[in-house]
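Predict structure. Chain length: 289.
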Amino acid sequence: MPPVLVLARITLVEASRRRLLLALGVLTLVVIAFTAWGFSKIPDIRRGDPGAPPISPVEVKLIASQLLTLVMFMFSGVLALSAVLVSAASISGEAESGVLLSLLARPLSRAEVLLGKALGHAAVVIFYAAAGVALELLVVRLAVGYTPPHPTALFGFLAAEAVVMVVLTITLSTRLSGMTGGVIALGAYFAVWLGGVVGAIGAAFNNDAITNVGAASRLLLPADGLWRGALWSLEPSSVLAAAQAAGRDSSANPFFASAPPPVAYDLWCVFWVAVVVGLALWSFARREI
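Prediction complete.
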């Protein structure tokens, strides 16, 4: 097996043994159970008078779709936090503890060490994303019979967002301590999300200067652009049609996306990851251990 894959497997095993990930997994299961209870109560909603008949099945699914969007927004933030926590000290922490010296004493290059750790951490967050999305969609399906129109795309966008955060955090870890790099990565994540909201408001009011703020933030860090793709994958066709009929004001909604990211943006995300990984390799190669 190539050294990169060996290191990736070791990193994956080490990460799975952390109490932090165990606690995060237990908390995720608790939240999913709580949301399952909440979704199961949607069919019991009545209009005003307690004696009125329940809402229609179409309305049940519509409410479920919007509630699921909020749940996935929360999960997106937790996923980004998880990506940062598992990879923040991947280089700096082991450099300070001396573990990297023992690794590099073997016939391993610095590039193999960094790529192996990046692949291992990416595998952790991708697995977490897959498990979280699958369980949440399953409980929603069982509770109200609703499934979003593009579940595979939903997982793909969320997993890609997590990988972006892993790559950014590991790059910061080649020069900064785990805590400092983690704070910067999370700050950047929330900053670009806010930039995306500002850009959407600018688009709604035809303000090019404000719109360009959102566009630039999504290019600098693709996390928010990928989250917009996840939003689109959650929206049923009836909501998309209603938004089109509503006009431009719907674009200012931070929890709505009328279309997936264009192919050019998807290619930009791949290019961004490649460039940042290259920057991490360059930075790590010049760091004193």
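Summary: Residues 23 and 29 are 10 Å apart (CA to CA).
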